[in-house]
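Q: I'm writing up a methods section and want to include an example of the input and output format. Could you take the sequence below and give the corresponding predicted structure tokens, formatted cleanly so I can copy it straight into the document?
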Amino acid sequence: MRARTTVILAILFAALAAFYYVYEVRLGPDRERAEAERHRLFALEAKDVEELLLRRGGEMIRLRREGEEWRLIEPVRARTEPGVVEGIVSSLASARIEREVEANPTSVAEFGLDPPAVEITLRAKGEERGLRLGAKSPTGVWVYAQERGRPAVFLLSDFILRDARKTPEELRDKTVLAFEVQDVTALEIRTRGRVLRAEERAGEGWRLARPLEVRADQGRIREFLDTLKAARIKAFVEEAPAAVARYGLAEPLRVTLWLGRETARTAKTLLLGRADQARGGIYAQREGEPAVFLVGEELPGAVPLTVTALRDKTVVDYDRGKLGKVAIESPKGRVVLVKEGPGWRLTEPLAAEADDRAVSDLLSALGDLRAKEFLAEAPRGLARYGLDRPEVRVSLWEQEAEAPVRLLLAPARDRKGMAYAAVAGRGPITLVEAEALRVLARSPHDLRDRSLFGTLDPRAVRSIRLTLGETRVVLERRGEEEWRMLEPRRARARASRVNDLLWTLQGLRWRATAEGEPARLGLEPPRLAVSLLGSDGQELGALHVGRVEEGEAYVQVPGRSELYVVETKALGDLPEGPDDLAP
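A: Here is the clean output for your methods example:
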């Protein structure tokens, strides 16, 4: 009996599973599509709609698809805002009837349909479909509607009404000038008696072509083109004015872009007129189009109107990747740096490792130096600017270059806060901020590597030997995280305390060199001696710490003759004995 029951239940379960599969999985999507189609207002696809008419009282808006775009035909001919009309058409094509309110109403006035708020006509594949929209329902989320030629009143989403009430201005394309930045190959800015022209040349980037031939400011041109591309029309003022002088467009500021090259080249010109303070904008036109519109006041302000605004203001141009040698002559003396492998080394006035970060900051300051004004194009008459005897001279040798590039800097006595600058033998002579005199004048002390443990990696240290007065402490790493004390007694060491010590030493920098005998500075014998060993027993670094006074400590690296001063806060909490390292 039990086996028979099990078989029956299994058969019932299989039948239910088969029913579920057929009804829900196989037939479910078709059923859902059929249900959706049953409630659709129009049986058409958005891509098939060729024309859209919106009537609101005495106003009519006609929109027509032309290729892949929609154009406004009435009340004016104009481009439409990308995606806006397509969105309206898609909403209408996919609109669903929420509920039929009345099949054969005796009067439609109570639904706001006599007269209607909006009448919509769609033309697709040679056929017309019409829709009348009335008042909103009491809930405010639906609108009463009626299909042309049918009596029934039904409810639609009020989004349909919202879209159908868009004004011609809301539907119009508000792009000031339509172009792609990467297609621009030339730029011309023309004002009364002045023409600025820049050209994008293969392999050279942007260059000024008028009124002089110099490299252009790549970033400034790109910034302006981005601003122009993003500019939006604030308001449409007049479609076809009889005269444009009242808008300041009889003698406008002309901005012309050339797109493409050779036979495929086209031009687009924007005309900018006078400002209207009351309306908070500038009157403008597109050349070849009669309509006058208003743009934001920030757009004319973004137009570069002078050679200085448009030209490259880099004072000294060099290839940092090819740099092999740098010499600086300043009131701080002469300093020479030479590239060795990935880093830098001082060779004059002393031989020492250079601080890569300090050298990088120096080179960045050189590369970031920008002209505020251009005083002369040719490098003649240097004495007039004090550049025949510069306060700061920076010489840069690039690999395989025949001669160095020499930057000359002198204070501008007659211009507060400014300095004169020029590249010897090249020009131009420029005005820069006087801060450059301070930033580029570097002493050996400024550029030396001040690390006391070089490129120490604390994780590579396997053993530490400390001498604290008469006490010797030996620590040994076990695995990656554990430390053991071997002397003066065998015990576990506090790993966090030991690791803090290693990272403190790794980041330790000296502040200044010290004068005096090691014994007088507490370094013979030292208060603390530290030796760090690697896995092969080789010493990775060592340090002696001497007298501590007034926030400073004297230290020495064994094997070096120099003595150094470090800040005690940089030393951190040094161990006073074995107990400081115990758990």
